[in-house]
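Notes from the pairing session

We agreed to fold both candidates in a single pass and log them together. This is the raw record for the first candidate, unedited. Please don't reformat it; downstream parsing expects exactly this layout.

Candidate A
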Amino acid sequence: MSPVLKAGSRPPWVGLAAAVWVQIAAGNAYTFTLYSPLLKSVLGLNQLQLSILGVANDIGESVGLLPGLACNKFPPWAVLLVGSACSFLGYGVIWLAASQTVANLPYWLLFITLCIATNSNAWFGTAVLVTNMRNFPLSRGTVAGILKGYVGLSAAVYTVIYSLVLHKSSSNLLLFLSIGISVLSLAMMYFVRPCTPTSEEDSSVNIHFIFTQAFSVVLAIYLLTTTIIDDTVSLSDAVSYSLVAILIILLLSPLAIPVKMTFFPSNPKDNSQDGNATQTDPLLTPSSSTNNLGSFYENEDVSDVEFLLAIGEGAIKQKKRPRRGEDFKFREALVKADFWLLWVVYFFGVGTGVTVLNNLSQIGVSLGDSNTTLLLSLLSFCNFVGRLGSGVVSEHFVRTRTIPRTVWMTVAHLLMIVAYLLYASGLSGTLYVATALLGICYGVHYSIVVPAASELFGLKHFGVIYSFMGLGNPLGAIVFSALLAGQVYDAEAAKQGGGSTCLGPECFRLTFFVLAGVCGLGAILSVILSIRIRPVYQMLYASGSFRLPQSSSH
């Protein structure tokens, strides 16, 4: 049954404004760097054990097959409700262990509860991303860049709250993640809803997106500036709370669009657009080629014998597999070479990047800088720049020159090689440069894979396809963080006297050399992928704007 949609021009923008807050909640996995030192000291963990918990952090964040399936079966509010429950339960148990309210919780239980806690990200992110991609189908790259950008900024938001409100208490941060995120999700559930998408380009839509992007940039600069100020001078509670109040106002800025549309409405081209009638989502209805097959396909319970007899009698044409650019079922996408090329390229990018993110605190200490909050804030800011910027840039070039979005993943891989070599060098002043460069490239991979997957394999089953792509993150954490970085770090620490702390660039040097090599291979594969899918983009964007393929019967 096709979902019932909210009609009118304002509801999609209300949903986008609410999605911004949900995406901030969906970045809670980035806080692992802030509370991992507490877990290591209180629970007496070594670096390998801490890296394995980092893997749990990434597994929960990225395993989104269930949320992907749920998005096609249940309304967004139900998906967000599950995410709220995961956050409350998971972080609640971790807080009990870290605060020693409950002593001697087994290690395996912490692993499981951390998976549950960060799995809230998958439920939050999938719900708002799928809903808004369907609400704005003609601006997929822009929408993906904005929403993924706010996820990138979430680490800086949490860092500001951690420093200014929670006074750098990791225990209080865990309690905030358990209660605060759940409450926020419950408050946003009603506003994130499927709406009737527009069927043609509208200049006012582009203006609204530019406004949203501009204020997100202002927010990013404000967050970085606030973190630097807090790091350099001592702030009173009154000033700290005032800075947080400004942060909240900036996060509310996307709400100005539906408010403006309410008090200063434009003249609609079609009066029916502003009515309260409900409509059926055209993206989830059969395509024109499917309609040519008649009502025979409408009954999914028809037997194979009847189907074959109908083909033999000429009553219907046998349905052929979709072409790239059309709606694929998940199992149809799995047998396509381009699907696996895109997955591997994404896996090499985010898998190596998350290794740095999970070990950022230890990398900083090993290179003589223990200021985790400033490093994380810088990484968050640059992550945001990469996510938002790649959405804008790729959207421009795909419309003007039909350049595949995956070209920018190639560029990101090449720049990541530079970042990893800078880390490995251990030269003075390179830590922050490498972190900034890595943050940008990490954001590019996250942002580009969203519209690229939807353009190659369609929006109808996008939730499941995107969630499967997200598995590259936890698998990368297992291979590159736990099995590589954790082992190398502990081995070097043992050489320095057997303690749990390693000092010097050699602690991660071998790891960075391997990561650089992996990104080199990723760059080669992304070039191959871009060449293969160029004809798809020439078909989809030949007129300078996105258009759906007309038929699949080729």
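Candidate B (folded immediately after A)
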Amino acid sequence: MGSFKFLSFLTSKTHPRLPYQNPIRQNLVDKPESQYGPNRVFRFLRRLMSGGIIDGGSRTEAEEKVYSWLYALAQSDKDLVYEYVRSTERGLSFTEAERRLKENGPNVPVDFSFPRWWNFLWHAFFHPFNIILIILSVISYITSDSPNGCIMLVLVLISVCLRFYQEYGSSKAAMELSEFVRCPVKVQRCAGRVVQTELVVQIDQRDIVPGDIIIFEPGDIFPGDVRLLSSKHLVVSQASLTGESWTTEKTADIREDQSTPLLDLRNICFMGTNVVSGSGSGLVVSTGSKTYMSTMFSNIGKKKPPNDFEDGIRRISYVLVAVMLVVVTIIVITDYSTSQDLTESILFGVSVASALTPQMLPLIVNTSLAKGALAMARDRCIIKSLSAIRDMGSMDILCIDKTGTLTMNRAIMVNYLDSWGLDKEKVLQFAFLNSYFKTDQKYPLDDAILAHVYTNGFRFQPSKWKKLDEIPFDFIRRRVSIVMEREEEKEEDKDPHGFERVMVTKGALEEVMKVCSFMEDVDSGAISPFSPEEYQRIINMTEEISNEGLRVIGVATKKLEKIRYERKDNDDTSESDMIFLGLVTFFDPPKDSAKQALWRLAEKGVKAKVLTGDSLSLSIRVCKEVGIRTTHVVTGPELELLDHDAFHETVKTATVLARLTPTQKLRVVQSLQTVGNHIVGFLGDGVNDSLALDAAHVGISVDSGASVAKDFADIILLEKDLNVLIAGVEHGRLTFGNTMKYIKMSVIANLGSVLSILIATLVLKYEPLTARQLLTQNFLYSVGQIAIPWDKMEEDYVKVPQRWSKQGLPMFILWNGPVCTLFDVTTLLFLWIYYKADSLEDLIFFHTAWFIEGLLMQTLIIHLIRTEKIPFIQECASWPVLCSTVLVSAIGITIPFTPIGEVMGFIKLPLSYFGFLVVLFIGYFVVGQLVKRLYILVHKSWL
């Protein structure tokens, strides 16, 4: 996928001294604790840092340095932070900033070099069998056998073009990372030689250096890792790192401790996160490759676990090359000793080598994968990597993110509770009126309230109310208030124009309760003081509700005077002394199709694990709804405390892993791959999923996902529907099965044929077939196998994950290979004994008989290999395979009776020989079926 180049600070063992570095930072991130130090404060900080965090995720050296550096800053006073980065309260001078920029380069998280088109062409070309075919074609041209050489080159060309065309579209990667930080930044710099003046200037994020003081406001993106210096109602979104949609409050006036998870540090802001509300200033402490974001993406592009299939193909090629060298050498020497024609002997040897090579393997593999890609395209999937289809067939664990995959990614209203947890319609009424009259900006929770009221037949008559004012929602207050009035006619009231005027407040529960002084008994209407005991009781009740995976907001009201209403700007007293009414709860429901899809995946041997950045309680609630077991759950902070062995054991058993950081998701995937020896798929759509998507055997994203996630994915779903993955699993297993059919069938047929030729050559002392006849036979047989990608698989085969077995193929060859050779030798003995074809005078007859028997043997063997059942009786191949078998067999039988046969050196055969062939192949299928049953009995599998 290309290579990532990081600055030497985090990757080399020794670090050059940077202008803004000092021995303090070196001690914090590099050196072990020493008894003596330059300062007691510094020694104290080093002792704090020496404890480290015990984790089971095998952090890299670069990650450990970044963690140590940020924790040191979070635990330090602001005055000490300036010393760490060699800066001042006024900021850096322009000269110093320019010098640091030259030494460190531009502030980008990662320097990515994109692969060129020729990289993909080389990847598609460099296949062991492609190389073998090219070598054989070159030898064919040298020995004046141009037709054979041309055929082999055409096969290579088709195979390479198929793979190159499918994979060239995935050449983009990681460029989207710059989207997070490509914007102007307000920076405080100092100027002047004698009297220095503080200036606020705007510079490009690429020119930010450690030591800069930045000033930020809503909408700004942090250009590096920042230690806050000042803050006012600062709320930050860390969705780019965590995947959570909720915001995080940050403050400068705090010193954190080592027990706080890194992303929960309240005085540290990270590169790529953005300001939602509030303002402040901060000191840039890390830029470029030294930031936390850089550690996230430092593992992207690293080598994935070895692919069993590719390794197996490579081993087969080595074995066949070794066999080819031995057998061809013997055949060439034997033939030359008889014919004394070196050129003819070499040509015959090349023909034998060609017959031994599974020439169609690259074409069959890539055609099968391309066919699977087209089938998945009809299911609204985009396949970027062909090999991902085959890996889908082997996948036995699917790691999925909760939001938008298992759930609808929208809220529905569940309950409307009073202060004692009972459903009360009055709570819903005022929550509805607040959402109905709200005009500033409607959020999904407002839509959920309105939808619940309309669909359940409530008649709250909003037309009888008139909106007077609105105090809009902001991320500081985290609530919205509506002032409205209603005209009511009261019989006991002499004034026919009585008014009810009220303020309704709805928002985050803590913020609503903060402005309440009273609470109401909804049934009786009694108003009582909102005591600390009642406050704590409601908080406890809310925690129980939250543990069920529900989101809670509060509702409060306040009756206003009947005089003319007028609110002054910046008047914070209007939302005060309110009456607490109750709670409204919400839930992000699972998709209707999710439970069925997960059940169907489990039926096919694919276990689901949920890896999410959301809270544990919400994740458990969703997983229970869709049928995922929640007996073993764990959170990211808990994983951080585990040692290496406990980490892997926990990952093995856990089905729900919540509050995970991006690097933790990566480590979970890697643990499942290496320690668990699983084929892992990962389905995610956020930037925080990019690491896991890149590391998984099968990375799956969605069309609406982040650009980075789509770039690193192997498969892109155009719909967020797990049922599409089930079809992908079936296509993958079908592709894998058909590929294994060809590999096992071709290796057995080719080895059996070549060994038979070797035996015949040694016994007869002449060529059983001429080079031209052998190449023609091999060509017809190869053409007949083109239909294999269109074959079907038995139902039992696609029910379980299929993986390449290192011992499976050698044992398969040892069991089934001798059967082919046995019946070839039987043919040889029959021709020798019955027809007395043992002399040069009978050479043409022998060539013709051996040509037809060998072609039929290699053509019919696919029907014996392709199924565990009795071929043609219990199980038949697909019609394309049947048609190709009949066509190739008919061509082979009729060639001797045509003028082409005369050119090829054939003669017409007696009918008695065809009667013998019928008996021979009946015997072959009987013996082959008996060997098959014994093999299955011993090894418990076939393909």
